[in-house]
């Protein structure tokens, strides 16, 4: 437990810088500024480093990432290039932000989709990529089995990715001056609060739900 608390404390000190790096990457012209190993090897500098990657779109196994001398953490440098490290200061794996965003969208559409199921899809995708690379050498179908390391990596990076998105949303609300405690009450839907002259009062003039109205189906209908 103390190890996890220490890990979260290390991430917490980096969150503001990770948010800045994420916004910089998001606003970049390319939006996908990775440096795959072997393609831009000539750009290696003193603080550049190579790291194992998980990317369901490019299926790259590793990437060469640039890092400035005044960078606080390799994780910040990774976010600037479209990756999220699995540790704050000494990451061994990096997951592409597009992969994390893809899983986030999938989970919104299917909340029961687990990390394990998504990791199996990633492993199968890498297996197909490997098969294409070696098909001219052998006729044996090679598949990558389920790698539990990917489960741990995706789980930890996804938590930090969601934290970054929440912080971005907080900044947006602050910029729009929508972060006051009573803002939602003061800016309620006009259509719900507007009343006509001599309009008879309703027994229930407003309904608040926390389940998206799902419980309304359990109420009696007009036909009943």
Mean pLDDT: 78
- Give a quick account of the main beta sheet: strands, pairing sense, barrel closure: 4 strands, mixed
Number of strands: 4
The structure class reads: alpha+beta
Give a structural overview.
- There is one protein chain.
- The protein has 224 residues and is of the alpha+beta class.
- It has one domain (2-175).
- It contains seven helices and four strands; from the N terminus they run H-E-E-H-E-E-H-H-H-H-H.
- The protein has a four-stranded mixed beta sheet with strand order 2-1-4-3.
- Strand 1 and strand 2 form a beta hairpin.
- Helix 1 (2-26) runs parallel beside helix 2 (74-80), helix 1 crosses helix 5 and helix 3 (97-109) packs across helix 5.
Secondary structure elements and their pairing?
Blueprint: H1 2-26, E1 49-54, E2 62-65, H2 74-80, E3 83-85, E4 93-96, H3 97-109, H4 115-134, H5 148-175, H6 183-186, H7 190-193
Parallel strand pairs: 1-4
Antiparallel strand pairs: 1-2, 3-4
Helix pairs in contact: 1-2, 1-5, 3-5
């Amino acid at each position: 437990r103390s190890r996890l608390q220490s890990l979260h404390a290390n991430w917490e000190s980096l969150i503001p810088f990770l948010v800045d790096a994420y916004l910089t990457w998001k606003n970049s012209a390319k939006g996908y500024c990775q440096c795959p190993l072997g393609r831009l090897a000539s750009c290696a500098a003193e603080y550049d480093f190579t790291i194992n990657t998980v990317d369901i779109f490019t299926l790259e196994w590793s990437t060469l990432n640039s890092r400035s001398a005044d960078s606080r953490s390799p994780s910040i440098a990774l976010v600037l290039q479209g990756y999220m490290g699995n540790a704050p200061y000494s990451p061994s794996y990096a997951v592409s932000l597009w992969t994390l965003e893809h899983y986030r969208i999938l989970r919104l559409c299917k909340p029961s989709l687990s990390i394990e199921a998504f990791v199996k899809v990633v492993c199968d995708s890498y297996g197909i990529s490997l098969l294409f690379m070696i098909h001219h050498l052998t006729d044996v179908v090679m598949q990558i089995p389920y790698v539990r390391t990917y489960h741990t990596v995706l789980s930890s990076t996804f938590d930090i990715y969601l934290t970054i998105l929440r912080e971005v949303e907080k900044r947006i609300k602050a910029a729009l001056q929508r972060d006051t405690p009573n803002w939602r009450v003061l800016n309620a839907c006009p259509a719900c609060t507007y009343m006509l002259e001599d309009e008879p009062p309703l027994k229930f003039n407003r309904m608040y739900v926390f389940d998206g109205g799902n419980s309304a189906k359990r109420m009696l209908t007009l036909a009943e």
